[in-house]
Amino acid sequence: MSHLYLSEDLDLSAVSPGDDVRLTGEEARHAVTVSRLRAGEQVAIGDGRGTLAQCVVLETAPRELVLEVAAVEQTPAASPRITLVQALAKGDRDELAVQAATELGVDRIVPWSAARSVSRWEGAKAEKGRARWASIVREATKQSIRPWLPAVAPLTPTAGLATLLAGARVLLLEPTAETPLTGIRHDGRDLALVVGPEGGIAPAEIERLVAAGAEPVRLGASVLRTSTAGPAAIAVLNAELGRW
């Protein structure tokens, strides 16, 4: 499958090989005018909810593709789920983390307004920023041909993290922690990785999160950038959970 197109409006769980489906809107426009798909080519379409259909293009129009389903594959939701709590960071470092985390299999992303975050999403900028991250997640999902589209939560302050992550095992990435992430063994709970901004997580935030049950862990002996810490930690967890 060289191309994946997503349409959350499609109910792909109900289709079978031989059925015709129609892809419309912006995804169809991109497929026809940018990717220049033509009749006879093979593509994959997904609903972002675990179903991928391999299809053959039958007809094209400026904003519509008519496809014949060749095969359908349904993938159960991951268990346990991995959430990345990514602190806002200057430049595009937080966006790089979001993109790589999606490609590596994260299940949910939480934008975090940390005390030391230089970047700030004030007022209407909060929803604009969340939408920007959601767009990055969508494109990374398509690039990596993932059946599940990760959710992007609203901007969350430190005070709201404990409630948002209730029930999950929260792993706080902190270079000075005694416990290595590689020493963590899965206990059945969903996992949440908390990654601070460029200046690290403020001591008061560490205390608050630990008091709420978070476990400080470290990634090796070096200090990673905020853009690489989360993806590196997800890679470690993928190995521990048997995803890889």
What's the pLDDT, averaged over the residues? Answer: 94
What's the main sheet like?
7 strands, parallel
Category by helix and strand content: alpha/beta
Proportion in helices: 25-40%
Textual characterization of the structure:
The structure is a single chain. The protein is an alpha/beta fold and 244 residues long. It is built from six helices and twelve strands. Strands 6, 7, 8, 9, 10, 11 and 12 form a seven-stranded parallel β-sheet that branches. The protein has a five-stranded mixed β-sheet with strand order 1-3-4-5-2. β3 and β4 form a beta hairpin.
Task: Kindly list the characteristics that best describe this protein.
6 helices; single chain; alpha/beta; five-stranded mixed beta sheet; 244 residues; seven-stranded parallel beta sheet
